[in-house]
Amino acid sequence: MSDxxxxxxxxxxxxxxxxxxxxxxxxxxxxxxxxxxxxxPWLRPGETWPACGGCGQPMQFFVQLNAxxxxxxxxxxxxxxxxxxxxxxxxxxxxxxxxEPWAPFSPTALVRLxxxxxxGGGTAAVAEPETFPGKRIVDWxxxxxxxxWEETGDRGLTLSDEESDELSDAGFPLGGEKLLGWPLWxxxxxxxxxxxxxxxxxxxxxxxxxxxxxxxxxxxxxxxITQCPRHRSRLAFGWACS
Length: 242
Ligand SMILES: [Zn+2]
Ligand SMILES: [Zn+2]
Fold this sequence. Notes:
CATH topology: Hypothetical protein YwqG fold
Shape: globular
Number of helices: 4
Strand content: 25-35%
Largest sheet: 10 strands, antiparallel
Distance between the termini: 27 Å
Helix content: 10-25%
Bound molecules: zinc ion
Number of strands: 12
CATH class: Mainly Beta
Structural class: alpha+beta
Radius of gyration: 18 Å
């Protein structure tokens, strides 16, 4: 994957360089508990399809990631388990009356970590009629990733306008779906805090509009699954658009 061309800017940002991993997908679902975008989720035996806490309708299934399929830092973050993300896509407006669907911890989203010990005996759910087409993740492409100018500023590194332009022209932070790396913030920096310990949660997986999933968050919004670095099962999803 490409890096920042300008050596001065690349050098300056080197302390904030992280690896991100881009999913490589093929059509189809793969094993019930395998890593995929769209398709049907793994569910516990007898478990009913998760419903939206805002409108009661079945949520849409977006992604699941099994630690066994992931690069090591992400596998560790999942403690060997299965990450799943569901989100309400009912667009009749009824759902959002009492909820802010973009905000972390909204009842319109479910992000959960199924522990590895609980995965045995699970079954693939019967697909709801309108699931997104399944895309099985067959590999991960590692790429450098960098924070945006605002986030580098928060970390004590001020970029000039020209340097900020170099960074965004080079395509950083990376858009699209990705594992770890730095969030592509559409608005400001919006990490949620862990409800248990107050620690700032960190990016686990980015979900973009109309990339691997045929869905748009607001007006071409970008969403982020974040995780407490201390409480691995504390997960959140939030999105923003311009
Ligand atoms: Zn809903
Ligand atoms: Zn915590």
